[in-house]
Sequence to fold (332 residues):
Amino acid sequence: MDAKVPSSAIPEAVQILQHGGLVAFPTETVYGLGADARNAAAVRKIFAAKGRPASNPLIVHIASFSQIASCAEIGRSFSPKLVGDRLNKLSALWPGPLSVVLPAHPSIAQEVCAGGSTVAVRIPRHPVALELLQAFGGPVAAPSANPSNYVSPTTASHVREGLGSSVGLILDGGPCHVGLESTVLSLLEQTPRVLRPGAVTRAELSLVLGCEIAGPSPGDAPSGAPLLSPGLLEKHYSPRTPVVLLPALSGASALPQQRIGAILFSPRRLPFAPTALKILSPSGDLAAVAAQLFAALRELDDGSLDLIVADTCEPAGLGEAIMDRLLRASRR
Ligand code: AMP
Ligand code: MG
Fold:
């Protein structure tokens, strides 16, 4: 399926959603594969196209704050008043790369919630995503538009390469500016909890909410683990080529014989000569690193390399999300 220039293609995209089909669209984080979140058959097509396990819930995308009431039931929260207050405060971060987990509204398809009773909701910041969501007028369930477990797509060509004919229409909005999936924040407990780190950092959330923010508990999707303990992490976001983090390489003498692709966050000397080299920023700027990380992983994953070696950073601020994705990519 060809990617289409947005504005002229929005009415066609809305028609496809209304008829229970799939539309891939750009957001500021990564490209999403969208379906009407109220239509169970449509949502099942997302899981089929991605090969995604039914146990992995989807994020629901809306155009405006007032639409939350049609996706979530704040009244079923542990404290409706407190959660309502917190949502109002968080609205300062929307549109943006933040998804909030709340008790689900019964109109949202069970499949979206992976059989559970909660739903993740967000308002994306990309103009094409907002135009589509406004024109459709309802909630759109959309995970990343890639085969399950592979690196998320940050361009329309990534979507076409990975999903191709299983998508009704791909809206091309250019490369994604943030480049990492949204921060997922659970408001289901007294202490709000980050389930997946993203570009909205824990420090920012703490400032906006005026309270402590917890990290993932052992039972959640793991993230924010101490550096170089990828054994604890779920494998995800993975290229086919093995990924190793640079600090884990020291003293590995077999390396020079291999074809190695290297991803550096800034220019520096390497203890080996890489076959291919990607330098993501001249100054190690983490926003630039995040924006280009997935495209670099994909480019080096073309089948001709034995190994991808990736740089690391402090797992704090945006670095927490970057290291979360790299640790998962390096898990075998
Ligand atoms: P994706 O957009 O493909 O990265 O997938 C959406 C992600 O959002 C899931 O993998 C979960 O981490 C998170 N998510 C979605 N819905 C929920 C929920 N109800 N509770 C907890 N996490 C969720
Ligand atoms: Mg995904």
Notes: Residues 39 and 109 are 6 Å apart (CA to CA). The radius of gyration is 20 Å. The chain has a mean pLDDT of 92. The longest strand covers residues 98-103.
